[in-house]
């Protein structure tokens, strides 16, 4: 077979393209296509930051990522272990669904692990804080009682923004 610079360039370009696609899938679980098996995803090298049983026998894998934990992907697999949906759940719409009275475990299943947890022993609760894309100086706060129920939820000032003249 005769050396062909064009063929070599095409093969190199394809290799780079496949590597880039693999890297994107590795870095952003939201890019995994429906039909991907849970075993495939587990072999990709990504470790879920949470895992939850779904009522239909499926599994939900949580992947928290991004600077300050501003993105959390939830990937839902059916009982056969096939990906049926994937979404970035830290959105204002999803956060608005977190209301007093729901169990803490349901909060974790809906929007994942918090970026920060603060214990308030005198009141017998924890405050979970969630940063999310599009909110530069606010975060979502969830108060969870020692009984495991949400007592309050809403937006608050992100202390990461505190500094000289930040609130002026």
Supply the key terms.
168 residues; 4 helices; four-stranded antiparallel beta sheet; Beta-lactamase Inhibitory Protein, Chain:B, domain 1; 8 strands; alpha+beta; 2 domains; 24% helix
Summarize the structure.
The protein is an alpha+beta fold. Helices cover 24% and strands 30% of the residues. It folds into 2 domains: 31-88, Beta-lactamase Inhibitory Protein, Chain:B, domain 1 (2-Layer Sandwich), CATH 3.30.1450.10; 90-168, Beta-lactamase Inhibitory Protein, Chain:B, domain 1.
Count the strands?
Answer: 8
What is the radius of gyration computed over CA atoms, rounded to a whole number of angstroms? 21 Å
Strand content: 25-35%
What is the number of independent domains?
Answer: 2
Per the principal axes of the C-alpha atoms, what is the gross shape? globular
Instruction: Trace the largest sheet across and list its strands.
Output: 1-2-3-4
How many helices in DSSP terms?
Answer: 4
Q: What percentage of residues falls in helices of 4 or more residues?
A: 10-25%
Question: Pairing-aware structural class of the strands and helices?
Answer: alpha+beta
Quick one: biggest sheet? 4 strands, antiparallel
Poorly predicted regions? 16-27
């Amino acid at each position: 077979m005769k050396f062909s610079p064009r063929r070599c360039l095409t093969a190199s370009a394809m290799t780079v393209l496949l590597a880039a696609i693999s890297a994107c899938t590795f870095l952003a679980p939201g890019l995994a296509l429906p039909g991907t098996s849970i075993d495939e995803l587990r072999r990709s090298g990504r470790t879920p930051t949470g895992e939850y049983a779904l009522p239909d026998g499926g599994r939900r894998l949580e992947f928290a990522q991004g600077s300050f934990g501003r993105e959390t992907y939830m990937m839902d697999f059916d009982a056969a272990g096939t990906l049926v949906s994937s979404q970035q759940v830290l959105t204002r719409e999803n956060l608005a669904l977190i209301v007093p009275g729901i169990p803490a475990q349901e909060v974790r299943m809906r929007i994942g692990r918090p970026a920060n947890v603060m214990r308030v022993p005198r009141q017998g609760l924890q405050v979970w804080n969630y940063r999310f894309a599009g909110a530069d100086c606010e975060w979502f706060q969830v108060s969870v009682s020692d009984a495991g129920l949400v007592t309050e939820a809403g937006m608050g000032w992100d202390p990461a923004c505190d500094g000289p003249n930040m609130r002026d």
